[in-house]
């Protein structure tokens, strides 16, 4: 059993807890003081010394982000690229793949809109086809259906671990066992799982993984990272290159870096990058298993409490659930529910069909309200949300 999270300390170290009930951690979590201070300190240093000079003075701190991320996801530092968002991380991997007519890309119902838009663009350009693997009776990706579809024409399996629009945790490691056996590259969108659940690329068996800084990791906005396995790096040509990703070696020649940083650009927000490293270390300091335990338990209590409010329906499906809780209120559009909750001092968000058509479309849901908990949230926070809903549902 992991040492439980010391909630009082977590809240003391989270200034936002004094202002708001923040249940939008799947959107952007509240930054803890160490992250805030690291970012501000570097901005001040840049103002004092100059941007390049500040980067040189803090080179060791900036480089430390790679081993930190490697520790978090169980890979090696040279398999990590730090970029400005999860989408850019995912895109750099996806657009490095070469598809031909008839190639198949397998994905999940849970898939995020930006990923599907990229699949459709690539399919339109190359003649590849996109196939959605069915969900099983629990509402998670059907491993049996994936197995049926995996054959020689499949060039990529790209799925979402935890979707933006529900509490589902897809069976990432079972998917990895199948893709490994079939020798098919596996790209995992771990944007909503990293920081709230243990994510180990070795256990999962994915070849590429994308994540963001600002969600459950509590890092600064404008940060994300990509993991690419050693097995694949040299085979993936980044969709664009610069003088950091490659070296201009002669009048007509260049050489691409041999590590995952070939997916980065030279220019970067150094303050944010330092902040990301601090956020990762901070999460590791609590222990990811302790975080998962608290987040999952809080979310389960929230679902239980919501289910007892007349007119409120919990919409999460899946065998295994996480810290994202989604629901609808009879007769009240999700956007209006969110607005009322904001007025009551409770931050939530809305997942609308355009961000997850394969899933919300199939379930006939135009939108759901999303309340996503973190370990610094409390039972009182949950109660505040439910009391606000009680009065809303009673109208
Ligand atoms: C938020 C999200 C993304 C995009 O992350 P960015 O950092 O905004 O690019 C991708 N996939 C899922 C499942 C998400 O929830």
TrEMBL record:
- Residues forming the Aminotransferase class V domain are 22-385
Tell me the keywords, alphabetical order. Answer: Aminotransferase, Pyridoxal phosphate, Transferase
Q: MF terms per GO, please?
A: transaminase activity
Give the InterPro entries listed for this entry.
Aminotrans_V_dom, Aminotrans_V_PyrdxlP_BS, PyrdxlP-dep_Trfase, PyrdxlP-dep_Trfase_major, PyrdxlP-dep_Trfase_small
One Pfam family from the UniProt entry? Aminotran_5
Query: Which cofactor does this sequence's record say it needs?
Result: pyridoxal 5'-phosphate
Among Gene3D superfamilies, the record links this protein to: Aspartate Aminotransferase, domain 1, Type I PLP-dependent aspartate aminotransferase-like (Major domain)
Family as reported in the entry's similarity comment: Belongs to the class-V pyridoxal-phosphate-dependent aminotransferase family.
Q: What name has this protein been given in UniProt?
A: Aminotransferase class V
**Species of the source:** Streptomyces rubradiris
Gene from which the chain derives:
iscS
């Amino acid at each position: 059993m992991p040492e439980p999270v010391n909630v009082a300390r977590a809240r003391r170290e989270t200034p936002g807890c004094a202002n708001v009930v923040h249940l939008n951690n799947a959107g952007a979590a509240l930054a803890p003081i160490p992250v805030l201070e690291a970012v501000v300190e570097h901005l001040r240093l840049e103002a004092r010394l100059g941007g390049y000079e500040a980067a040189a003075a803090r080179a060791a701190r900036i480089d430390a982000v790679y081993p930190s991320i490697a520790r978090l996801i169980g890979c090696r530092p040279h398999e990590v690229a730090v970029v400005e968002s999860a989408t850019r991380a995912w895109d750099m991997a996806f657009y490095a793949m070469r598809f031909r007519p008839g190639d198949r890309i397998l994905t999940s119902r849970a898939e995020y809109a930006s990923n599907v838009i990229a699949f459709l663009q690539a399919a339109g350009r190359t003649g590849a086809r996109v196939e959605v693997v069915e969900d099983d009776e629990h509402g998670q990706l059907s491993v049996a259906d994936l197995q049926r579809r995996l054959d020689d024409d499949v060039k990529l399996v790209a799925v979402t671990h935890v979707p933006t629009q529900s509490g589902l945790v897809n069976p990432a490691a079972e998917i990895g066992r199948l893709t490994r056996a079939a020798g098919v590259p596996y790209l995992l969108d771990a944007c909503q799982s990293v920081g709230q659940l243990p994510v180990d690329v070795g256990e999962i068996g994915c070849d590429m993984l994308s994540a963001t800084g600002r969600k459950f990791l509590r890092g600064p906005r404008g940060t994300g990272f990509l993991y690419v396995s050693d097995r694949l790096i040299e085979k993936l040509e980044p969709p664009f290159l610069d003088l950091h990703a490659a070296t201009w070696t002669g009048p007509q020649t260049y050489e691409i870096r041999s590590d995952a940083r070939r997916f980065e650009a030279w220019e970067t927000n150094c303050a944010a990058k330092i902040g990301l490293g601090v956020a990762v270390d901070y999460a590791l300091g609590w222990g990811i298993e302790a975080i998962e335990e608290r987040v999952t338990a809080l979310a389960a209590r929230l679902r239980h409490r919501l289910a007892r409010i007349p007119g409120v329906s919990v919409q999460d499906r899946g065998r295994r659930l996480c810290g994202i809780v989604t629901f609808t209120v009879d007769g009240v559009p999700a956007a209006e529910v969110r607005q009322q909750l904001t007025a009551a001092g409770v931050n939530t968000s809305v997942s609308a069909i355009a961000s997850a058509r394969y899933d919300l479309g199939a379930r006939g849901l135009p939108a759901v309200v999303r309340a996503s908990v973190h370990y610094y949230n409390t039972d009182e926070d949950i109660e505040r949300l439910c009391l606000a809903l009680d009065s809303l549902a009673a109208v």
